[in-house]
Amino acid sequence: MKQQFVETSNFKRFMAGVAAVSARGSQEACILLLTGEPGTGKTCMTDHYGSDVNAIYLEGVPGMSLTFVRDYLSRETNVYGKGKFEQYHGMVEFFRRSQYPIILDEAQHGLPHRAEVLEYLRRIAENAGVMLILVCHSSEKHRFASRGLEHISTRVSDVVELKRASLDDCASYFKTLCEVTLDGEIVEQVFKQSSGRYRLMANAGKTLETIAKKLGKTNLTATDVKGLRLCEDAMTALKREAK
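Given the sequence above, the corresponding structure tokens read:
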């Protein structure tokens, strides 16, 4: 499979959200909340966008503290200070000059202690006039609107939820990335087996390239893969084998 970003319908959703936050009337409302089920491309999306705009990317971890995030941000920006006050203002100045967005993946890990981690990042983003993108699983998004977190929820300008791939997305994905040409029936087969999850579609692509190599072909038709399971979620496979 080729290493290239494919502009699917999810990309259009995400960029519409970015545009909405960029056009906000209130500088305080600097947050974009990006959510989606596993396999819908959240990490791929933020990696691609982050690379394009030189965003500062942070990955949330369980139990992370405000001290952890300060140190993490200092390492990524090379901004340090003799004390917390000097460090904070150095961060604001860095982002004001660079206009780099801040991306926090697994952002739900910043919610404990009245979301002090998110509040710290939000204040930097607000004062610097940049965007803060918080990324989380769909099942976690309701937590950002919890009682007592109004200082975060009222600063969210837009919520973008990534969806599973459509059949058209699937066709575009394989046309762009797969090293072999696939007929429409194979694309539809992968679409059904993967349920539109990009992670499984990528696995199917590698499987199809392996099959084509063994057959000595550069084009595959439905006959070549008849009866084969091209991709499957690991837990689904375990459940099927346990029956």
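The chain has two domains: 9-162, 167-236. Try to locate this feature in the token string yourself.
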